[in-house]
Specification:
The chain has about 210 residues and is mainly alpha-helical. It has twelve helices and two strands; from the N terminus they run H-H-H-H-H-E-E-H-H-H-H-H-H-H. It has helices spanning about 5-10, 15-25, 35-45, 50-55, 65-75, 115-130, 135-155, 165-170, 175-180, 185-190, 195-200, 205-210; strands at about 90-100, 100-110. Strands 1-2 form a two-stranded antiparallel sheet. Helix 6 (about 115-130) runs antiparallel to helix 7 and helix 10 crosses helix 11. The longest helix has 18 residues, at about 115-130. It is globular, with a radius of gyration of 20 Å. It starts with a helix and ends with a helix.
């Protein structure tokens, strides 16, 4: 990440936008961006209370806050099958594809309804079982992936938010807060959480103005 680009971007924003970033978007920013934002606040001689507020926002949210934001996610329409019949949850899953001298080993994250989570993890496990064994490292990662996926499989049908969803929410509260009134934005975020978080860290207003 080029911090000079971010510095120049922040310099181009209005005082109101800088205040909004500090109040509503701080948790979504990368750690190395926070000092840049603080310095911009100081340079503009904005109220010192804003720096204190920023420090408080960066503290880990309470368990109750995390649960409440999880509920916002859980009541959304499933981004895969578009049904709203059951609470959404989250999962991580692994898959391996081997070739002669190596392998592709990936860890993926997904938010959907339990049925779609099961389908996603099952497909990854089948792909791994059929294609993952055929190299030395592929063999090792295949065993690890199949065990990992089996363990995650059992957590998809929890009525309460599972740990995977809670960890995700804890890192993305600011984005969820900004998106919660728009189903389209929330769907976009749930489908591409990593891409949208990276974009927000670099250029927040592009994400929120869409």
């Amino acid at each position: 990440m080029d911090l000079e680009i971010i510095k120049n971007h922040y310099r181009s924003l209005s005082d109101t936008k800088i205040k909004d970033i500090a109040k509503f978007e701080a948790r979504a920013l990368r750690p190395e961006v926070i000092p840049v934002l603080k310095q911009e606040i100081i340079n503009r001689k904005l109220p010192e209370e804003l720096l204190d507020f920023l420090d408080r926002k960066l503290l880990r949210p309470t368990e109750l806050e995390i649960i409440n934001y999880c509920k916002i996610i859980q009541k959304q329409r499933c981004p895969s099958c578009y049904k709203r019949s059951t609470n959404l949850n989250a999962t991580n899953y692994k898959y391996v594809i081997s070739f002669l001298f190596g392998c592709v080993y990936r860890v993926k994250f997904k938010i959907t309804c339990p049925h779609c989570l099961n389908k996603q993890v099952r497909n990854a496990s089948v792909k791994t079982f059929l294609l993952g064994w055929w190299s030395f490292y592929g063999f090792i990662h295949t065993i690890d992936s199949l065990i990992f996926n089996f363990r995650m499989f059992r957590k998809h049908h929890h009525i309460i938010p599972n740990k995977t969803l809670k960890d995700f929410v804890c890192k993305n509260i600011s984005i969820i807060e900004a998106c919660k009134e728009s189903e389209l934005r929330m769907q976009d975020f749930m489908k591409n959480p990593d891409n949208n978080t990276r974009q927000l860290s670099i250029n927040p207003e592009e994400y929120y103005d869409r």
